Automatic annotation (TrEMBL):
SUPFAM superfamilies, sorted: ALDH-like, Carbamate kinase-like
A Gene Ontology cellular-component term: mitochondrial matrix
The Aldehyde dehydrogenase domain, residue ranges: 350-614
Gene: ALDH18A1
Name of the protein this chain belongs to: Delta-1-pyrroline-5-carboxylate synthase
Length: 790
């Protein structure tokens, strides 16, 4: 509040609103103002950010570069490549309007390199003068005093920083400090004033302890209460400086990924994503880094001191070659990098804890008898019908909040009694199919006498299913995960938050029948999809359900986890010259108009040249117009018309609405070539009465689903009799087409022997391989019962 007008950061609020070309409802305007004010007021009151996502709001940032980041592995000289990448990121953030400060190590290492060089050069000259010989004796370098190295290295280190930042038109200034500069009020005010003025002039201050004059650090003098922190290393210096300058964020880069719950070198060490002030008693510290004065304990103490002073802190790895080039910008963008220190502890478990709970409970689920898993699924199906009023009420809340979404997204978001009944039927189909899923013997081989090998089906492990505004997806994939014995981590779109919450509660109620309630987890925290895709040690398969943009983003982000799905559903229908009129009209109408937003809806209609200007073609156009389908003309089709519809911008377009492209081809082979070039290998259809033509199309076309005289909408797990599907895959391996129960299983080999060794089958061994195929027999499933077992 300034002179009666609302302002943020000294600017009128009007400057923070959207351009006038956009229309903002009063509700949205209030939400926007509330969001901006909540972050700004929190910072104004000296509170640190509560969540990683808020780090994007950080204005003043301190970057602390540990000795291990700045120096080479031999500790004599600087790691120029890492330093250059840090400079680039800092300059980029500075040019975005942020105020950047660097607390750097490296003067001692740089000076050590210079002094060693000078000493070796001096020794070689003296030896040459005294001996008169060209051959030099072995020379040893004396132990160099650290303060002398710092004095020799400071100027060179600063000159290097200045040269690097100049490449980005960024000015720098050197500031050397000691403990006295913070403990003496006048000196502290002078330092604050100097730094404020440098930041005001858009200069990056580069700060270091004046190691040429600083006394040796006193043991156990890291922290001296709440208001004082002793500057004994660059960790404490960075923390003190960040609080003194009221920085929003302190990024401490070292040679470890972040804070672990035990020493990083131990086998069971786990990286802590978010660290809370009350958690320090539950961790064990390892040794300090290879160089520098501080260890992880010093970093944590300094971080907690800065956090208490109102500055958010992230400790991360600045030496990893794959992430160094973007680690700072990733942190500022709110990505899950390193350990984030927060004073706000969420009420529920972290996503890592959810994944661990799901995996442990999932193993118990996989060990259940098939009929027990079937009972769980049948109970969930019953709950969908019994609790439909509660589900629909939650869905109505979501629909009301999402009134500004497109019609296609609203269709996906909406639930109805008919949809719930259809879901229940599909779930019961899955329950029946689950009877012979896990543990099914695929192959039996007698390797040798009393040595038998079996290949059996087993769950994949932990599935991560990410879906947008599709709440019906949650019970479907939950049932498939239960039937296949997999643990499930479900991440739904915020548009369906209320519906997903109710459906997840019902799912856990059904799972609790056999004590495996935690096997299905709903991720409702602020986790970014990209962060979830990095949990490669916890998640075994990612299945995206949503827009092509979502799928592509996940495929790019999940570098170490397999992704099952398709990025686009560009489905074609080819109308052959020998097609029957009634079948064409029915199939095209159903494929395009039944559910235009579906991934198996027709997007391109290919017509044989011979049917142009025929009654059949006229009826197709009339039907599409009646159904209010917007037509885009392909290049060849447009050339036949005097007044054509709008020409298509791309033949590789998924409209997801009442729109389609029409293109002309000369033959069935040309239709196949067109589909291979512009399609997405999802679902493609031929309509013809010529069986030979149809069979050629079915055999030659390389798509996950290929149909003859049937709607593309049949590409669905439920319609295939799979009960439901987790998605449609256009991949070449593991699973393709609608992925149901079978696609969520893998296999393992079980070998039963009697003291056999590989040496027994060697050239001088006593046994020989038989490799006889044995008949496969399956255990008879017990009769399913719907009674609860307490």
């Amino acid at each position: 509040q300034d002179n009666g007008g609302l302002s943020l950061s000294g600017q009128p609020l009007s400057l923070f609103l959207l351009p006038q070309t956009l229309t903002l409802t009063l509700t949205h305007a209030r939400r926007l103002v509330t969001c901006i004010l909540s972050v700004s007021l929190a910072r104004a009151n000296g509170n640190s950010f509560a969540h990683r996502g808020e780090l994007r709001q950080a204005k003043r940032i301190v970057v602390k570069l540990g000795s291990a980041v700045v120096t080479r592995g031999d500790e004599c000289g600087l790691a120029l490549g890492r330093l250059a990448s840090v400079v680039e990121q800092v300059a980029m953030l500075q040019n975005q309007g942020r105020e950047m400060m660097i607390v750097t190590s490296g003067a001692v290492a740089f000076g050590k390199q210079r002094l060693r060089h000078e000493i070796l050069l001096s020794q070689s000259v003296r030896q040459a003068l005294h001996s008169g010989q060209n051959q030099l004796k072995d020379m040893s370098v004396p132990v160099l005093e650290a303060r002398a190295c710092a004095a020799a290295g400071q100027s060179g280190l600063m000159a290097l920083y200045e040269a690097m930042f100049t490449q980005y038109s960024t000015c720098t200034a050197q500031v050397l400090v000691t403990n006295l500069d913070f403990h003496d009020d006048q000196k502290r005010q002078n330092l604050n004033s100097t730094l404020q003025e440098l930041l005001r002039m858009n200069i990056v201050p580069i700060i270091n302890t004046n190691d040429a004059v600083v006394p040796p650090p006193e043991p156990n003098s890291d922290l001296q209460g709440v208001n004082v922190i002793s500057i004994k290393d660059n960790d404490s210096l960075a923390a003190r400086l960040a609080v003194e300058m009221k920085a929003d964020l302190l990024i401490a880069l070292s040679d470890v990924e972040g804070l672990y719950d035990s020493p990083p070198e131990s086998d069971d060490a786990k990286l802590i994503d978010i660290f809370y002030p009350g958690d320090q008693q539950s961790i064990t510290y390892g040794t300090k880094s290879r160089v520098g004065l501080g260890g992880m304990e010093a970093k944590v103490k300094a971080a907690l001191w800065a956090l208490q002073g109102g500055t958010s802190v992230v400790i991360a790895n600045g030496t990893h070659p794959k992430v160094t080039g973007h680690v700072i910008t990733d942190i500022v963008e709110g990505k899950k990098v390193g350990t984030f220190f927060s004073e706000v502890k969420p009420a529920g478990p972290t996503v890592e804890q959810q994944t661990e709970m799901a995996r442990n409970s999932g193993r118990t689920l996989a060990a259940l008898h098939p009929d027990q898993r079937g009972v769980i699924i049948c109970h969930l199906a019953d709950l969908l019908v019994e609790k439909k009023e509660e589900i629909l009420a939650a869905n109505k809340t979501d629909m009301d909040l999402a009134a500004n979404l497109s019609s296609a997204l609203l269709n996906r978001l909406s639930l109805s009694p008919a949809k719930l009944n259809s879901l229940a039927i599909g779930l019961r189909q899955i329950a029946v199919a689950s009877q012979d899923s896990v543990g099914r013997v695929l192959r039996r081989t007698r390797v040798a006498h009393n040595l038998e090998l079996e290949q059996i089906t087993v769950p994949i492990g932990v599935l991560l299913v990410i879906f947008e505004a599709r709440p019906d997806c949650l019970p479907q994939v939950s049932a498939l995960a239960i039937a296949s014995g997999n643990a499930l981590l479900a991440k739904g779109g915020k548009e369906a938050a209320n519906t997903n919450r109710v459906l997840h509660e019902l799912t856990q109620e059904a799972l609790d029948i056999h004590g495996v309630k935690e096997a299905v987890q709903l991720v409702s925290t602020r986790e970014e999809v990209e962060d979830l895709c990095r949990l490669d040690k916890m998640i075994d398969l990612i299945i995206p359900r949503g827009s092509s943009e979502l799928v592509r983003n996940i495929q790019r982000a999940a570098k170490s986890i397999p992704v099952l799905g398709h990025s686009e559903g560009i489905c074609h229908i080819y109308v052959d010259s020998e097609a029957a009129i009634d079948k064409v009209i029915k199939i095209v109408r159903d494929s395009k108009c039944d559910y235009p937003a579906a991934c198996n809806a027709m997007e391109t209609l290919l017509v044989h040249r011979d049917i142009l200007r025929t009654t059949l073609f006229d009826q197709i156009i009339d039907m599409l117009r009646t159904e209010r389908v917007k037509i885009h003309a392909g290049p060849r089709f447009a050339s036949y018309l005097t007044f054509s519809p709008s020409e298509v911008k791309s033949l590789r377009t998924e409209y997801g609405d009442l729109e389609c492209c029409i293109e002309v081809v000369d033959s069935m082979q040309e239709a196949i070539d067109h589909i291979h070039r512009y399609g997405s290998s999802h679902t493609d259809v031929i309509v013809t009465e010529n069986e030979d033509t149809a069979e050629q199309f079915l055999q030659q076309l390389d798509s996950a689903c290929v149909f003859w005289n049937a709607s593309s909408r049949f590409a669905d797990g439920y319609r295939f009799g799979l009960g439901a599907e987790v998605g449609i895959s256009t991949a070449r391996i593991h699973a393709r087409g609608p992925v149901g129960l079978e696609g969520l299983l893998t296999t393992k080999w079980v070998l039963r022997g009697d003291g056999h060794t590989a040496a027994d089958f060697s050239e001088h061994g006593t046994l020989k391989y038989l490799h006889e195929n044995l008949p496969v027999t399956q255990p008879q499933p017990r009769q399913m019962t719907a009674q609860r077992e307490d």
